[in-house]
Design goal:
This protein is mainly β. The chain has one domain: Immunoglobulin-like (Sandwich). It contains 1 helix and 7 strands. The strands form 2 sheets. Strands 4-3-6-7 form a 4-stranded antiparallel beta sheet, with no helix packed on it. A 3-stranded antiparallel beta sheet has the order 1-2-5, with no helix packed on it. A hairpin with a 4-residue loop joins β1 and β2. It is globular. The termini are far apart. The N terminus is likely disordered.
């Protein structure tokens, strides 16, 4: 009888704990040359390693595709013209950064 009571108590405690927020974070910086570095992560401290990254032109054409590295960084050569960077960790976890907002 005790194992059943313990299991029920455990489930009640687990279900009562609220879900932790998992908000995506991404910032990109112009390195002062022709390259850009983006750093990513999540508000709960989780790594962004492996998160899909895209660089698109103004019409949405993909110019560069890659992933965040083991340090949650993504480096790329700055494209000519208007562009945006997309951090895509899945539905509800997408961040778009306009190239004009990427400063040194």
């Amino acid at each position: 009888m005790k194992p059943i009571v313990s299991a029920i108590l455990f489930m009640a405690i687990v279900c009562a704990v609220p879900a932790a927020a998992h908000t995506p974070l991404c910032a990109c910086y112009n390195n002062g040359d022709d390259t850009v570095t983006c750093e990513g992560g999540f508000s709960d401290g989780s790594s962004a390693a492996g998160v899909q990254m895209r660089v698109e032109d103004a019409s949405g054409k993909m110019l560069i595709k890659g992933k965040m590295d083991a340090n949650s960084e993504f480096n790329f050569k700055k494209p000519d013209g208007t562009y945006r960077v997309i951090f895509d960790a899945g539905e509800g976890h997408v961040i778009e950064i306009d190239g004009k907002d990427i400063l040194e």
